[in-house]
Amino acid sequence: MFIRVKRKKTTYFLHCDPSESVLETKQKLQALCDVHVDKQRLILVEPETILDEAKSLEEQQVGCDALVALTYKIQGMNEETNEETDSWEEINIEKPIDPKASLRKDHNKVNNTNL
To answer: In which domain of life is the source organism classified (predicted)?
Structure first.
């Protein structure tokens, strides 16, 4: 099966076996985005569910063509404890720009100036 992993304007199409663990999926992503698995969090978008890396995709209802959000760990230190923070980015998936909408907008500007 294939899943779509998205972050900002980037989409990764990954071929996965339903029985593979989320950790194995994160390892595939590490090879593509050069971010260590410990600094990645995968979230099934519908319903919004943080995926447990010890469980399989199938166990967590991640099916073919599933949309999964990728977030990264926010680097920083807790000043009181001098330990690394456990904060994560919010889901940030930017919608693609519709080139036809942009053309219609430009076309309307031209037509309105000719009136």
So the answer is: Eukaryota
Query: What is the H or E stretch that residue 70 is in?
Result: strand 66-72
Q: Are 44 and 9 a contacting pair, CB within 8 Å?
A: no
Going edge to edge, which strands form the sheet with 10-15? 10-15, 2-7, 66-72, 40-44, 49-50
Pairing of strands 66-72, 77-78: unpaired
Residue with tokens 């590490």: 30
- Residue 40 Cα distances to 34, 65, 73, 79, 102, angstroms: 10, 20, 6, 23, 34
pLDDT tens digit string along 68-96?
Answer: 999 999 887 767 777 777 789 899 998 87
Q: Does domain 2-113 have CATH number 3.30.1330.10?
A: no
User: Taking every pair of C-alpha atoms in the chain, what is the biggest distance, in angstroms?
Assistant: 67
